[in-house]
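Researcher: I'm preparing a figure for a lab meeting and need a structural model of a single chain. I don't have an experimental structure, so a prediction will have to do for now. The sequence is pasted below. Please return the structure as tokens so I can convert it later.
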Amino acid sequence: MPVTIEHDLEQIQKPVFQVFWGGPDKPPRSLRDLLEKRIEAVPGGGEILWATYYFRDEGLANALLRASSRGVRVQVAIEGNPRTGAVNKEVRKLLESGGTPGRVVRSISHRMIDNWYLRSCRLHEKLYYFSHPSPCALVGTFNPSGNQPEDPDVISKIGDQDRGHNVLVELYDPVLVQGMRDHAERMLHMVHGPWERYLQQHNKIISSGTTRIIFFPRSSNQDLNELFDLSGKGNRLRMAVSHLNDKRVCKRIAALARQGVQAEILAHDTQRRVPSWVEKEMLQSGVTFNRYVHPEGLPMHNKFMLIETPERRILTFGSMNLSVRSLHANHELLVIDENPELYQIFQSRWVEMMRELNS
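Model: Understood. Here is the structure written out token by token.
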């Protein structure tokens, strides 16, 4: 159910957000079906802007083509050099065929490196903007990376995201939605390169109410680093992460645990995404560390943190992993929120995932 707030003058109820989960306990393809419903709801004269890493779902591509044919301005940015080869190629062909006015498809590839870790930049955001029936933006972890009929070889490499653990949060706040729409527009039309992290518009924080949205790469990671300024008993840090390999972040988490912070991690099961040295360091420091292992190999692709102190409860979610590439190179989106209802929704999902793991 959407969380609502009351307008003091008009006494009307206004939605703030909705949270949509994917996972083994949810109907298969539920998140991609949600995106298709949002596409079909946009009438001629409306607008759809997407930025995503993987896009293999030809059914969704055809839904975007139908929207374009009825006069919707459709613009899609796709990563041009994903880790798993040319998996976006077929959808790109579809979207580029029979071009209509207002339809833009851009494959974004970075060829210049500007970070200490020598990682090339990738478009890893998952951002889906729709102008109608009312402006909204969905952000989170879900890529439309499945397809029908499916290719088992591809799925074995990238994971079945249509059935694995994922989340999309639909935001309605006009300030946040407009900020994300403008960001998607920039991603589609700007000249990309290593200078982006220094641009004022890329370092801007979109803020409204209890919510802040920051984009990466940026000139400073101060806002992210401040989230780990915890110490002592009474503080708690819970993290659902699919990728964790940044040594600085790992050292900070380990130090927090040694200082008395109750730290818990639920990580993806593969060594590539979360190496064994991370698990060893966490366990030696007193962090409660679990790997999510599903009998069918379904992924745990969620990326959120629950930060609890005696004074505050902070939730983070978005596309960002705590990996070297995400923190220092990629285009990423991170939402930092202190809405208590939203925190409770994510906390409940944490409990459900832990119950599934323990069962």
